[in-house]
Amino acid sequence: MPELPEIEAIVHYLREHAVGRTINRVDIASLAALKTAAPPWTELHGRPVRQADRHGKFLDLDCDGLHLVIHLARAGWLRWADVLAAAPPRPGRGPLAVRVHLGPPGSGPGFDLTEAGTRKGLAVWVVRSPSEVPGIENLGPDAATLDQPGLAEVLRGHTERLKTVLTRQSILAGLGNAYSDEVMHAARLSPYATAGRLTAEEIDRLHAALEMVLSDAVHRSIGLEAARLKSEKRSGLRVHGRTGLPCPICGDTVREVSFADRSFQYCPTCQTGGRTLADRRRSRFVK
């Protein structure tokens, strides 16, 4: 799933390559991806792209008063091309959901929005204000700009596990499964810690980890083409997606907790005092 650093890098790329160009045509290959009917997507035709921005994990293209807002969900991606095919795509065929021509079809650049797999979550809105998108309207403060007192306030009173709070976009915007694992590992905090019961020293560590992990990931990602962002993300991860491998900090084996449709990874030595966390696949459960 693209998270804050990858979305920030895509926004940076679009500022350099899309802003200033005019939308010639938008092709909708998957009507299920389009979440608005008015204004129609055809009103984007002939409008210049004025700005590219980010709201949490949402992309926002300001097209001279209309906003093309994109959420890539778990398996979506943006693929830039210097020349896009002129022929309109066939609806329902393959991973392509939306194609945006930023020049004459067949001779101009643009980008495709694609989504792998059978579970479709990629979403596109055409709105007059980003605040019309429910997911944006309900976003919490951005993880990349939150200061330490702000983080303490965000966590205050929450009885949920830290992993849950860090990935709930209405509480804290921008983090997903991967970078929340990385932040908790860097902060030496258990994913099962109660968010509202962290000490002042633990909140300090968590805030420092947020700044370090996100700034490093953004720094490594900015300037890369979208096609290279996934591999760059994987190369910088210390625990997420590394089940069974040694922790690069202490050498302990990275462990995994699995749920019905996702999993997270952690280091017992660095984060849980050597204890193994509860996992639905295990016969014994440890809290």
From TrEMBL:
<feature type="domain" description="Formamidopyrimidine-DNA glycosylase catalytic">
    <location>
        <begin position="2"/>
        <end position="93"/>
    </location>
</feature>
<dbReference type="InterPro" id="IPR015887">
    <property type="entry name" value="DNA_glyclase_Znf_dom_DNA_BS"/>
</dbReference>
<dbReference type="GO" id="GO:0006284">
    <property type="term" value="P:base-excision repair"/>
</dbReference>
<keyword id="KW-0326">Glycosidase</keyword>
<keyword id="KW-0227">DNA damage</keyword>
<keyword id="KW-0511">Multifunctional enzyme</keyword>
<dbReference type="Pfam" id="PF01149">
    <property type="entry name" value="Fapy_DNA_glyco"/>
</dbReference>
<feature type="domain" description="FPG-type">
    <location>
        <begin position="238"/>
        <end position="272"/>
    </location>
</feature>
<keyword id="KW-0479">Metal-binding</keyword>
<keyword id="KW-0234">DNA repair</keyword>
<dbReference type="GO" id="GO:0034039">
    <property type="term" value="F:8-oxo-7,8-dihydroguanine DNA N-glycosylase activity"/>
</dbReference>
<protein>
    <submittedName>
        <fullName>Formamidopyrimidine-DNA glycosylase</fullName>
        <ecNumber>4.2.99.18</ecNumber>
    </submittedName>
</protein>
<dbReference type="GO" id="GO:0008270">
    <property type="term" value="F:zinc ion binding"/>
</dbReference>
<keyword id="KW-0378">Hydrolase</keyword>
<dbReference type="InterPro" id="IPR000214">
    <property type="entry name" value="Znf_DNA_glyclase/AP_lyase"/>
</dbReference>
<keyword id="KW-0238">DNA-binding</keyword>
<keyword id="KW-0863">Zinc-finger</keyword>
<comment type="similarity">
    <text>Belongs to the FPG family.</text>
</comment>
<keyword id="KW-0456">Lyase</keyword>
<dbReference type="Pfam" id="PF06827">
    <property type="entry name" value="zf-FPG_IleRS"/>
</dbReference>
<dbReference type="InterPro" id="IPR010663">
    <property type="entry name" value="Znf_FPG/IleRS"/>
</dbReference>
<dbReference type="InterPro" id="IPR015886">
    <property type="entry name" value="H2TH_FPG"/>
</dbReference>
<dbReference type="InterPro" id="IPR010979">
    <property type="entry name" value="Ribosomal_uS13-like_H2TH"/>
</dbReference>
<dbReference type="Pfam" id="PF06831">
    <property type="entry name" value="H2TH"/>
</dbReference>
<dbReference type="InterPro" id="IPR012319">
    <property type="entry name" value="FPG_cat"/>
</dbReference>
<keyword id="KW-0862">Zinc</keyword>
<dbReference type="GO" id="GO:0003684">
    <property type="term" value="F:damaged DNA binding"/>
</dbReference>
<dbReference type="InterPro" id="IPR035937">
    <property type="entry name" value="FPG_N"/>
</dbReference>
<dbReference type="GO" id="GO:0140078">
    <property type="term" value="F:class I DNA-(apurinic or apyrimidinic site) endonuclease activity"/>
</dbReference>
